[in-house]
Amino acid sequence: MFRPLRKTLLATLIASLTLGPVLPAFADSADTLPDIGTTAGSTLSIGQELQMGDYYVRQLRGSAPLINDPLLVQYINGLGMRLVSHANSVRTPFHFYLINNDELNAFAFFGGNVVLHSALFRFADTESQLASVMAHEISHVTQRHLARAMEDQRRNAPLTWVGALGSILLAMASPQAGMAALTGTLAGTQQGMISFTRQNEEEADRIGIQVLQRSGFDPQAMPQFMDKLLDQSRYASRPPEMLLTHPLPESRLADARNRANQMRPVVVQSSEDFYMAKARVLGMYNNGQNKLTSDLLDNWSKGNIREQHAAQYGRALQAMGADKYAEASKLLQPLLSANPQNPWYIDLATDIDLGQKKNSDAINRLKAARELRTNPVLQLNLANALLQGGQPAEAATLLNRYTFTYKDDTNGWELLAQAEAQLGNRDQELAARAENMALVGRLDQAISLLSGASAQVKLGSLQQARYDARIDQLRQLQETFKPYTKM
What InterPro entries is this protein classified in (predicted)? Predict the structure, then answer.
């Protein structure tokens, strides 16, 4: 599969609100806020939050080591949207991203954007534990914590809220400098900043655990994961990154335990997709301590049927990663025979085929997949296999449809650029590369590429008009983003 990686980024979320009342036994109350005299609306509208979220996510794509693996992107977004569908006060679309980073952390920012570090898959023993982190971050967004923090600083600090935005952006690019700037902007002192954040974290816990329960996950997973975090801090010289951006005093853990204990007990089994995703993250994106160990595979081999499948899949991934394609195929075959339509297995089988230069086998396998028309993962796999198999025209046809539907997927534009280059369609290659540049925040380069595409086609043609219109759109976007680029 097509899995590009990018550079590095670390970010932090700062927000505020008071801790709500303790829930009654077996409560399922709405995660709404008491009226405390501010809705953050006088500082930021929802439209402004979406606009800033668009700007920041482009910077994220351009500077962070995002894992653009379609299978993993599909999994975390599916899990995230299951949680969002059970949250109240949802005012924005949500998007979930995975960063290749062995520091344990997660954060959220404007416009419903939630970012997970890959280390979460190393530490989360169950899907409910992973979901508890995501529910917490979703609650930061639904409660508009960042906008509330900016409203508070606008009332109480001499700097404008625009200064806070600049500091947040600095935090995304340089964690130490950014954290210091953000501390100074929003609270004035480090201790004030910590207290401010604790209030925010407590509310995100309170709302998040309700979302977790309503989504069918184990509410005990939230205090369980907090326990794991505290254990890490007790036996390490440096606390986990997550505790630096998400303070976790004992009182916060005690409150989470209390809330979970008041909810109906439930037995929740992790899905097979969770185990597959964990095996894939640790097996293919083994950064630093994030490794698929033999101990984990051995434990899974003795577990339930989902864990056993993940162990077999993980060993096949390891074999393929070592270019042992015959061994990988042998390990995968029993899984594929039992479940030939499983996208995790089809994807790996395709990679093995391509590694063995069996391009026709890969193409035929993907074309036979029942979910090809509806599953973007399989569509990208097929486009990649067609390119490897010397069929760029068919790949381009598929990718033109794909990029029309999934405009924000850099994978599709990158593959389309390759297909058009193989076909000798220079203007369309440049246009596809321009869309990729725009998605990673390089608007000047995108405009330059589109200008080149416009110069390649007949003067006054419909195609030239399309390229010129897109240039105008990107120039307008530059104007929209100008306040943020000056920070």
Answer: Mito/Outer_Membr_Metalloprot, Peptidase_M48, Protease_BepA, TPR-like_helical_dom_sf
